[in-house]
Design a protein that fits this description.
Strand content of chain A: 15-25%
Order of helices and strands of chain B: HHHEEH
Helix content of chain B: 40-55%
Number of helices of chain A: 32
Radius of gyration of chain A: 37 Å
Strand content of chain B: 5-15%
Distance between the termini of chain B: 35 Å
Structural class of chain B: alpha+beta
Shape of chain A: globular
Largest sheet of chain A: 13 strands, mixed
Number of strands of chain B: 2
Largest sheet of chain B: 2 strands, antiparallel
Oligomer: heterodimer
Number of strands of chain A: 24
Chain lengths: 905, 104
């Protein structure tokens, strides 16, 4: 029995298609059409089988869906009826053209909102597209290393190979190590064409990788074969840009490049520049040092990626990591008193969802920012739609007579709704077209502002189905939802009152409109207040005292190719430079403020066990560093001129003089700076961690990195005779900024004399330092831009609404004027409503803003006070805008002769 | 003056004249049987409606059958005008045929 029923129900036309047919098909046609289709269906089941019969049924239901079969008195019928269609179109355009300002505001506001929304959506989609282009990107993971104090993006070199060996689900591994570990922060690459022309460029994105790099990562090649490009230790693979710099449009395969003039490499491939949406960014790859087992093995500096097979469960794999670590690194962990853990990060999560890791080479995006921008996009669109609803509803009241007449002529309510929805669809359509023009014109500027190097073409965008779906969604939602309310209001007019041309006023309509307007105000207040806070925090960070004078510091990079006379030359340079009265101090160092210090190790009080280890950053300086940077020594003394780390042979017995900053002193557990002076410490350097140092001086805290970060604990070593490695990377010049051009020319002259044949590269420390704020500044700019857009759209709405409101009260104004009211008193009267709404909006918005801003500020170690500005400025801006609009409209209407308005009937 | 009649219209009109019970599905099936071409139900309906409008067919609602889900069918029959058009069409055609030069 049950089986039979099953059988029967399965041999039936698709239900939804049947229902669809019943929905659109006119009743008088339904018998024959549906009957025929059903009969044909059962006949076809026998003949062709169920599947084909069902398919044919659906096809024919759709074929029948045409104007002649539609029910009368439905929207479908009216719009598809050619006569009514023509009439609707004509009336719609007449109405649009009748009040041009109004229509322009309506369409332009909507277009602006849509354009802003689409731009943001594109940006968001781009941010979400990171690293998706690798084949099987959902199976590629980066293995990060979490220790007691730090969580690092780079890992021990042995982890990659050992993971593959121990776990069958690991298909492949790739390790990358940055040039700074092998050569230094900057690498000089040169090409000699054999005819005496040598081209040399500095590079800072060179990686040494495993030779199978391109079998895991898909970066398209212009020349060479990705599979074998790195098979030789002497192979070098370069980007299109680098290739163009050296060889122009020539095919560079087989050409010889030199690194530091000493290490020869043969070009074996050219890849297209790494796309912006890759979290790994490199210009040059070699696979050389990775082949050697010795040498680099001590350092956890290897970015390690693994690819799992398609059945593997990353969580199960991660569960086995603790034992794995014990097996391979147990001894080391016990020795360092540091428990280390491995984590798997899906490669596609790294750009947006990675926790803050050390040793990241590139700045990553922020998921919160992305979602926040999406929210703004939606809000702007909502504001635009609210405008649309308000403006069309108010405007439509003027069409009371038209509606009355249509009703008298027999129009049903349905028909009227159809008409207004159709008009709304036309306006939305025009707005979408306009928004595309806005997008095409503004997209390049927007991406420049957002700091993204994205080349988008509208053709590219149109090839994506998501785009069309979103567009259709926005169009349908916009025309239906935003159009529905005005349509309902309009079609509900009573014939008799409508024909008299009387205005329609229902209290519920006014309440709704007021609610919508206050909602717009709430959004506007929130956006303005948010913008103010972001801008304030950014300027606070930039103007805060850093602990040294960053404005008059010029930093010169020392030459990359040096000889044994380096420190002599540096000394000469220093002595010669300071002869110029505009140059106050010159100091070499291996690090400068404005960046994360690359060397990290441990210190502890002498005599304590390794469990007391605390991390510090290493800074190699000369005695002149403190005066150059104007740092304060709060206890003890500065290094002496002749003190030198390299003078000590055995650092375990003879204490080296070292200096600490306040933060490091605190983390060692001293009460204050004085207590720490002349105390002995053990510190780690290279492979050992039991060297002895004596704290000779304490330096006051200063901002090594930007104000998003806390003070870093720093350990200073004295270096008398700098080498490029110890304290020789940078030379900081403290100078008088009055005759800057001459002074810089002078320094360049000295530099050329002392280091002949080397490029003179310099920058100002303040530029360098402020570079760290680029992301926050960009965020501020993008936020500001869209807040401004939202505000403009909201203002357009306000303008339209107040215009309308005043036009409704023309007679009232005339009567008041006749009775002796002044224009200003009327302006005050009419503004009252808006003032009330704005105050209400502030009440709602500000607590929300306060919470949001507090949350955002918690990203920063040093925060600006929230202050009173954000509570006053948004309200003031909105008040000024709305009061001036209302006053302007009152003035315009009220300044005429009252009789002109009163006579009108 | 000859009324304008398409080839499909002519075939359908003829089929209606041949059949006892002419309605959408049965005509479609007969069409497929006699000509070997397939045709969709909506296409048949369109042609029928057009012929009715031209006055060559008339229709009335018949009774329902079970396989039609209880829906009634619209039964068609040719009008005298329809017969007249068809026979005129045939005459015209034969006249033209006879004018083709014979070679044997």
């Amino acid at each position: 029995m049950a089986e039979k029923r099953d059988n029967k129900s399965s041999v039936a036309p698709p239900k939804w298609a049947n229902r669809f047919l019943e929905w659109y098909c006119a009743a008088e046609l339904l018998d024959e059409v549906q009957g025929d289709l059903h009969e044909a269906f059962y006949f076809r089941v026998k003949r062709y089988g169920l599947q084909k019969a069902k398919w044919l049924f659906v096809k024919e239901v759709l074929l029948f869906c045409r104007p002649s079969s539609f029910k009368k008195n439905t929207s479908l019928h009216y719009v598809t009826n050619p006569d009514m269609f023509q009439n609707y179109l004509k009336i719609a355009f007449r109405n649009l053209l009748k009040s041009k300002v109004f229509s322009a505001i309506n369409v332009f506001g909507l277009a602006l909102g849509l354009a802003a929304c689409f731009l943001i959506m594109q940006y968001v989609l781009f941010e979400l597209s990171y690293d998706q282009f690798h084949e099987g990107s959902d199976r590629i993971y980066r293995v990060s290393l979490e220790g007691n104090r730090t969580h690092s993006a780079a890992n021990h070199p042995l982890v990659g190979p050992a993971l593959k060996e121990d776990f069958p689900e690991v298909e492949a591994y790739i390790r990358m190590v940055h040039q700074s570990i092998i050569f230094g922060e900057n690498v000089a690459i040169s090409y000699d064409d054999g005819q005496g022309n040598v081209k040399m460029f500095n590079e800072d994105r060179l990686y040494d990788v495993d030779s199978s790099f391109f079998s895991m990562f898909n970066f398209p090649f212009l020349y060479g074969d990705p599979e074998n490009a790195l098979s030789e230790a002497s192979s070098i693979v370069i980007s299109e840009t680098i290739s163009n710099k050296f060889f122009g449009s020539e095919n560079p395969l087989g050409k010889r490049l030199l690194i530091f003039g000493r290490f020869p490499f043969t070009v074996s491939g050219v890849f297209k520049d790494v796309p912006e949406n890759s979290h790994i960014k490199f210009n040059v790859l070699i696979a050389t040092w990775m082949r050697h087992r010795e040498g680099m093995q001590a350092w956890p500096e290897f970015y390690t990626y693994i690819k799992l097979d398609s059945l593997a469960d990353p969580e199960q794999l991660a569960a086995k990591f603790p034992d794995f670590m014990q097996k391979y690194l147990g001894d080391r962990m016990r020795e360092m008193n540091n428990i280390e853990r491995l984590h798997l990060q899906p490669i596609t999560d790294i750009h947006l969802r990675s926790p803050k890791l050390t040793k990241e080479r590139e700045a990553h995006g922020n998921e919160q920012t992305v979602y926040f921008l999406t929210l703004i996009a939606v809000l702007i669109l909502v504001i635009a739609w609210i405008n649309y609803i308000n403006l069309s509803t108010s405007k439509s009241i003027e069409r009371a007579q038209e509606i009355g007449l249509r009703k008298v002529a027999g129009a049903s309510r349905r028909q009227l709704i159809t008409q207004f929805l159709f008009e709304s669809a036309i306006v939305n359509f025009i707005a979408i077209v306009l928004s595309f023009i806005i997008i095409i014109v503004s997209a390049p500027h927007f991406y420049q502002l957002a700091g993204k190097n994205i080349e988008i073409s509208i053709v590219d965008l149109m090839s994506k189905p998501q785009f069309w779906l979103t567009l259709a969604g926005v169009f349908l939602f916009g025309s239906c939802c935003a159009g529905l309310y005005p349509a309902l209001i309009l079609s509900s007019f009573r014939v008799t009152t409508a024909l008299k041309g009387k205005f329609f006023r229902s209290s519920s309509g006014i309440v709704l409109r007021k609610t919508l307007v206050s909602f717009q105000f709430v959004i506007s207040v929130a956006l303005i207040a948010g913008t103010i806070m972001v801008l304030r925090q950014v300027s606070f960070m930039q103007n805060q005292e850093l602990g040294y004078e960053k404005d008059q510091l010029l930093v010169i990079k020392t030459p990359l190719v040096v000889d044994s006379l380096f420190h002599q030359r540096l000394k000469t340079f220093k002595i010669e430079s300071t002869r110029n009265p505009n140059i106050y101090h010159v100091a070499p160092s291996n690090e400068i403020p404005g960046k994360l210090i690359s060397q990290v190790n441990f210190i502890r009080n002498k005599g304590e066990g390794t469990e007391a280890n605390t991390g510090v950053f290493h800074f190699h300086i000369g005695s002149d560093f403190m005066s150059t940077y104007g740092l304060t020594i709060i206890a003890g003394r500065n290094f002496k001129e002749n003190e030198d780390l390299s003078a000590f042979d055995d650092l375990t017995t003879q204490p080296v003089p070292v200096m600490l900053n306040e933060k490091a002193v605190t983390s060692l557990g001293y009460r204050n700076a004085e207590a720490a002076t002349n105390q002995l410490i053990n510190f780690g350097l290279g492979a050992r961690d039991d060297w002895v140092g004596e704290i000779v001086g304490i330096v006051s805290n200063y901002h090594q990195r930007f104000l998003k970060e806390e003070y870093d604990p720093i350990l200073y070593f004295p270096v008398k005779n700098p080498t490029p490695h110890l304290s020789g990377q940078y030379v900081t010049v403290n100078l008088n900024t009055n005759q800057l051009t001459e002074t810089i020319a002078f320094i360049e002259e000295q530099y050329a004399e002392v280091f002949p044949g080397n490029a003179f590269e310099y920058f100002f420390l303040d530029d360098y330092f402020d570079h760290q704020y680029a992301a926050d500044q960009q965020f501020g700019r993008v936020f500001g831009l869209f807040s401004a857009l939202a505000l403009i759209v909201a203002c357009l709405g306000l303008f339209g609404l107040s215009t309308f409101m005043i036009s409704q009260r023309v007679k009232e104004i005339a009567v008041r004027k006749v009775l002796g009211a002044t224009i200003s008193s009327m302006a005050v009267l009419f503004s009252k409503d808006f003032v009330r709404l704005i105050l209400l909006a502030n009440l709602i918005a500000l607590p929300l803003v306060y919470l949001g801003v507090q949350r955002w500020l918690s990203n920063f170690a040093f925060q600006v006070h929230i202050g009173w500005l954000i509570f006053v400025v948004p309200a003031a801006i909105l008040l000024v805008i709305s009061l001036s609009t209302v006053s302007f409209q009152t003035l315009k209407t009220g300044s005429g002769n009252p009789i002109d308005h009163l006579r009108q009937e | 003056m000859m009324p304008n009649l398409g080839q499909l219209e002519e075939s359908v009109l003829l089929l209606v004249m041949i059949m006892d019970e002419a309605y959408g599905v049965s005509i479609a099936q007969a069409y497929e049987e006699k000509t070997g071409n397939t045709i969709s139900i909506p296409a048949i309906h369109t042609v029928l409606k057009r012929l009715e409008k031209k006055g060559m067919l008339r229709s009335q609602m018949g009774e329902a059958t079970a396989e039609r889900g209880g829906r009634r069918k619209r039964l068609f029959e040719a009008t005298p005008y329809g017969y007249q058009v068809i026979s005129q069409l045939r005459e015209n055609r034969l006249k033209l045929w006879s004018l083709i030069p014979k070679f044997n």
